[in-house]
Design a protein that fits this description.
Distance between the termini: 28 Å
Order of helices and strands: EHEHEHEHEH
Strand content: 15-25%
Shape: globular
Number of strands: 5
Radius of gyration: 13 Å
Largest sheet: 5 strands, parallel
Helix content: 40-55%
Length: 131
Amino acid sequence: MPFRNDTAAKKNILVVDPEKVTRLTFESIMTRAGYNVTSVGDVDKAMDAMDQNHFHLILADLAHGKGPALDLLAVKRFMESNVPIVVVDRDENSTSADTCFALGACSYLGKPVQAQELLRVVRQVLKAYEN
């Protein structure tokens, strides 16, 4: 397990991305690193998963400026949730990033995301949000 690290122990991560290949890729990377990963394709399934489990971090796709990330950021704000959301966007641009940060995203990554960069950001965010 080349990516495994001690900070991953018992950390639950929710991956929300409408693209199955991306979901499975992120899930594989995070699982090999030792995280417990749940992956879903839309906001409704994400909300169901959040009702059933406690997540330490959410990794959500922006999907061309209108995807699950914005919906989840709005829900997070409404629920006053402290679960950090990392946004991943294929069309990385400063306007999208500014919007996500204004809504409460803690990090913003452009696709394609390299495994090491994804894990670095996840570790960094989890460390910053530790109780």
